[in-house]
Write a structure and sequence with these properties.
single chain; 106 residues; mainly alpha; 4 helices
């Protein structure tokens, strides 16, 4: 039975399919298309995490973020530094604040 996926998958998926007696038609993406597919995967994994609220889905989401960082040559230590700076300047999301509206003072 043929199944069409047309999506980015983890590196070992073709091997796993073959070891289970199947075959997989794949292509290696260029950088531009790879980044596009990573962006799609980011939304896919975020949606799955929201729906399932499982640690495995959060791990998948983080794997996509790490892949984007590697591709864009972004140092994750630098990302963490920026995250901390923003948290110090604007706060984090710990207090559960939900902004309803604002009004500009005159």
């Amino acid at each position: 039975m043929k199944q069409v996926f047309n999506k980015l998958v983890r590196d070992k998926i073709p091997e796993i399919i073959k070891s289970n007696g199947g075959s997989a038609k794949c292509e290696i993406l260029d950088e531009k298309r790879y980044l596009e597919e990573l962006h799609k995967k980011l939304f896919e994994e975020a949606k799955e995490f929201i729906e399932e609220d499982a640690i495995e889905e959060l791990a998948d989401l983080m794997e996509v973020i790490y892949a984007i960082a590697r591709l864009r040559k972004i140092n994750l230590t630098e990302v963490e530094k920026v995250r901390i700076e923003k948290a110090e300047k604007k706060g984090a999301f710990e207090k559960r604040i939900f902004l309803i509206e604002t009004e500009k003072g005159e």
